[in-house]
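Figure 3 (text version): structure tokens given as input.
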């Protein structure tokens, strides 16, 4: 008989309980995850989060840490083949999560202030050009293939030297609806790492970044130094 039953998963961050209300939990089921429904559970009430058999590639489910824990319940099966339910999870500040999964105007250009803050707080900051764009209609995402002219910062090795030419290259993901296309000119790419992937944040043309950086520096308003040349 196929196993039945359920288990509750409570994530416990290594931080003060007072900070829990500022945290967001995101889970990303494995592509071959099967055999159970995943619910959000709090004080005995269940809210379906991931239905067994949902094969939405790369879909991420996020909720506030204070909304409850995960309730994973095996679903009835017609055979005895082995099925495994698995997922990745991340705990992050609510501000970061809203940046990654904003509902309103996800493709809106960043303001000057947002760009300057992104330069200081992003997981990666590079000057580069768009070499190519691969659109993934099923996943509703676009993969931006970036040629790097200058690497200011990266927390993970997303951008690496390739071949004997010694050029830096990497990939950044964004929403398909943003309509990114290859083109001439350099951009300042910023963003965050999410489940091991680089996600696009602010990306002004580099000449526009140079202008806003100089204007802020002249007024003594730069939140951090980066050296825009």
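Below: residues designed for each position.
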């Amino acid at each position: 008989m196929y196993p039945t039953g359920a288990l509750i998963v409570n994530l416990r961050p290594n931080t003060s309980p007072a900070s829990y209300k500022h945290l967001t939990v995101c889970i990303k089921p494995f592509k071959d995850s099967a055999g159970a429904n995943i619910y959000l559970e709090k004080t005995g009430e269940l809210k379906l989060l991931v239905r067994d058999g949902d094969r939405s590639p790369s879909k991420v489910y996020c909720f506030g840490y204070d909304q409850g824990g995960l309730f994973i319940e095996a679903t009835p099966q017609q055979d005895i083949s082995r099925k495994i339910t698995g997922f990745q999870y991340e705990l992050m500040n609510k501000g970061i999560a809203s940046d990654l999964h904003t509902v309103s105007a996800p493709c809106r250009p960043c303001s000057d202030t947002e760009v300057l803050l992104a330069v200081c707080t992003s997981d990666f900051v590079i000057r580069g050009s768009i070499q190519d764009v691969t659109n993934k209609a099923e996943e509703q995402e676009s993969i931006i293939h970036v040629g790097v002219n200058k690497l200011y910062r990266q927390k993970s090795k997303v951008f690496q030297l390739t071949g004997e030419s010694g050029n830096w290259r990497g990939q950044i993901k964004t929403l398909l609806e943003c309509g990114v296309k290859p083109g001439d000119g350099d951009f300042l790419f910023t963003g965050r790492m999410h489940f091991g992937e680089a996600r696009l944040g602010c990306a002004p043309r580099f000449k526009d970044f140079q202008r806003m950086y100089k204007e802020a520096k002249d007024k003594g308003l730069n939140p951090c130094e980066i050296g825009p040349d």
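The two ends are 66 Å apart (CA to CA).
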